[in-house]
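Collaborator request, handled under Task 6.
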Amino acid sequence: MGEYMNDDDLSRILKAVGDTTRRHILTLLVQEGAMRVTALAAHFDMSLNAVSKHIKVLEEAGLVARKTLGREHFIAAELGRLSLTESWFGKLKSIWELRLAALDNLLVSKDEQNAE
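Structure tokens returned to the collaborator:
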């Protein structure tokens, strides 16, 4: 992808997807495509203002894009930035795999010592 992600980018993305309502908004946008803010808000048991605040967090993370046509605001999912988190999660996974392999080796070694 070629785009660099700093710690602030990662924090914004994780904050954005760390909330159930925002994950539901993203899921809905992926399933339905771009939606008017008012139509999007109709899917949630909260005020238009509250949904707009959730959308703002998603916009700041770069996970949705807003397009204005006249007085209507349309929101669309922009999930490309989610792939930026893959390297971070990949590093964590690698660290845990190494630690688990070391633990496995230790346990095998202990079993072999006990068998002698």
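The cover message to the collaborator said: "The longest strand covers residues 64-69. DSSP finds five helices and three strands in the chain. Please let us know whether this matches your experimental observations."
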